[in-house]
UniProtKB/TrEMBL annotation:
UniProt xrefs under Pfam families: ACPS
4'-phosphopantetheinyl transferase domain location: 110-191
Phosphoprotein among keywords: no
Gene Ontology MF annotations: holo-[acyl-carrier-protein] synthase activity; magnesium ion binding
InterPro entries attached to this UniProt entry: 4-PPantetheinyl_Trfase_dom (IPR008278), 4-PPantetheinyl_Trfase_dom_sf (IPR037143)
Protein name: 4'-phosphopantetheinyl transferase superfamily protein
Keywords from the named record: Transferase
Superkingdom: Bacteria
Length: 212
């Protein structure tokens, strides 16, 4: 089973990283054939997306056993935010095949994003970065990926529609390293929140999630 890790971020917050190398049938053996899961799978035609969904369920099942809580399945609220059925616990899910990551907190909002640095970020950077952020990124693919993932994580924390990435979210300047802590700000109408984020750079992906 390619569960890479279950990591305790704080006593109430945990992260699961899954590296998919199973077949769909192998993942189904891990998740069980729940009617809700099978219904969701029937709506997905792309094979890798089906595997990502199964790995997310397997991650949450594994985490629920580790932390001794009941996992009754996944749903989404009216804004598309993933929620645990029958639970007030908070989760956020990200996937970039063949990786899936899940962050869970007993009560606080969470956001996570995993991306593989790609040249396409150079073409769309102006759509998600402010002028100051563009100048500070120096067209560095990895730094652009961290900025993108940080804003994706903040978007998931806000969890409502309407956020414009290059207007309503900013990331304070930072020096690039293999891992570090950065600060983001969400400012949407009357809503204003400063977010402390942790990032990690590996040879295969960039991972960002909130710490507070």
């Amino acid at each position: 089973m390619p569960l890479e890790k279950i990591e305790e971020i704080t006593p109430s917050r945990h992260l699961v990283l899954w590296h998919i190398n199973e077949s769909e049938s192998e993942l189904l053996q891990l998740t069980g054939n729940s009617p809700e899961l099978l219904r969701k799978l029937s709506e997905i035609k792309v094979d890798t997306k089906r595997l990502e969904l199964l790995a997310a369920w397997a991650s949450l099942l594994t985490l629920s056993k580790s932390l001794s809580f009941q996992f009754n399945g996944l749903s989404k609220n009216e804004n598309g935010k993933p929620i645990l059925i029958g639970s007030s616990r908070e989760i956020s899910i990200t996937h970039s095949y063949p990786y899936v990551a899940v962050i869970h907190d007993i009560q606080s909002d969470v956001g996570i994003d995993l991306e593989q640095p790609k040249d396409k970020l150079l073409k769309i950077a102006h759509k998600f970065l402010s002028e100051a952020e563009l100048k500070g990124s120096y067209n560095d693919i990895v730094k652009l990926c961290i900025l993108w993932s940080a804003k994706e994580a903040m978007y998931k924390i806000y969890s409502k529609r309407g956020l414009i990435f290059n207007e309503h979210m900013i990331v304070e300047p930072f020096d690039l390293s293999k891992s570090g802590t950065i600060t983001g700000l969400i400012h949407m109408n009357e809503y204003k929140k400063k977010v402390k984020l942790h990032y990690r750079v590996t040879p295969d992906y960039v991972l960002v999630f909130n710490l507070d």
